[in-house]
Amino acid sequence: MKHFIGSLLRRNLFTPLLGIIAFLAVVITPLVIAVVDSSFYGDQGASDYRYEYQFKSLNRLENVIAIANRRGDYVAPSAPMYLDLDIEKVRPIDFASQTVFISGTIRGVWSEDSLGKESIAPKISFASARLGKIKASEDLMADLVIDGLLQDDFYSYEPVLLQQKSGRNGKYWVGEYAFSGNYSFAPRLLDYPVDSQKIDIKVFHDLMPSYRLKLAPTKKNLKDLNAQKSVSNYRISDFKSSPSFFSAPFFKGLGDVVVDGKTGAFGSNGESLRELEKAYFSNEVGPFSVASWTLTLKRQLSTTWLRFVFPVSLLLVSLVVASYIPKEHVEVRLAIPPTVLLSLVFLQQGALTDVPDLGQPMLLDYYYLLAYVATLAAFVEFIIASHFLADERQAIPLTFTRVSRVGTMFVAAFGAPLIWVLGFLSSRLGGY
């Protein structure tokens, strides 16, 4: 090692090599730290599992539990309560509070067959006894809960309609409520500023568990949406309903029965039935049927390109143009890279003012990191070129200048698309 260092010193290569090592350390260190930090993010292990059940399979399980608990008077609901969600207005997302203002109407249709008779709970509690007094003729919409809709000063849930009608199968009721308020959700900003936000709107009955009332959302798609199609920098790209579900601790046997429709899990094995019942009654009353819809907002590409990509690309192109300034004006050439570097710093800080601190780099941070590297490389190229003013045919500075120009132009033209394509692939492979 001593002879190696001595050889570098004799050839005047020690300082350039040390500079290259320091440059690589400055560039690679943020990437390594980002990888280490990202290993602490992701799924933190949710306590409840989402069972997207089949209506008949869940009814079958609840009937078996009722028989095992000697609830001979229990009659399972033979039809769900159908819910139709219409969104009329969506305001810009408030990333600081992680909320978005939503207003619209929710409409429900139910009949006598939508209510299950009696309780199947292992123990008769005050809550389960109270549920037995609720009748189909009551306003079942009044006790619906829109999970995530904050009950603050902007909250509103007001009745609009309640009618009893008659059909071929007897009487049924139609109820409609208007709602509005700030909806709380967890924004995904790792792909910022080409991110898309998925807002899961979940509705359940506050009193009646699934064996008394099951909810089913009507099928929705984007053309059914009554709201405006653009929300500030985002556009509404999708609006669809999801299968009904209930939440309970994960138990494979319960999923086999209510999701896959298997019956062997409780056919003749009493122990298996007790395990299923324990998983089903994770709380005293039982699980609640949940109807859900997903509203997807995607950031508009034109806004992203003009506000975040174009200024950076213009600065990098200016570096390439500056490399053609005559070498006699070396002071002017050397003043341009620091100016570009400071401009990039201010641009990055301004681009992140509306985004909360994630504690993890976003795609925009990687884009600016690439721009910083290109700027520093151009600065080094200008310095090297300034030492060879007398002879422009020197091979080393000429080659370095060409490489620097091509690299900077590549980052200016393809840096953002490349990083966002890699980020898209990474997020899909990571399951985000």
What features would you describe in this structure?
- 41% of the residues lie in helices and 22% in strands.
- The chain is an alpha+beta fold.
- The chain has 2 domains: 52-299, Distorted Sandwich (Acetylcholine Binding Protein, Chain: A); 302-429, Neurotransmitter-gated ion-channel transmembrane domain (Methane Monooxygenase Hydroxylase, Chain G, domain 1, Up-down Bundle).
- Strands 1, 4, 7, 9, 10 and 11 form a 6-stranded antiparallel sheet that branches.
- The radius of gyration is 31 Å and the shape is elongated.
Summing up helix and strand content along with how strands pair, one would put the structural category as alpha+beta
Q: Secondary-structure element order, as H and E? A: HHEHEEHEEEEEEEHHEHHHH
Largest sheet: 6 strands, antiparallel
CATH level 1 class label of the largest domain: Mainly Beta
- What proportion strand? 15-25%
CATH architecture name of the largest domain:
Distorted Sandwich
CATH superfamily of the largest domain: Neurotransmitter-gated ion-channel ligand-binding domain
The number of distinct structural domains comes to 2
Overall pLDDT: 81
Oligomer: single chain
**Number of DSSP strands?**
11
CA-CA gap between termini: 47 Å
Number of helices: 10
Helix content: 40-55%
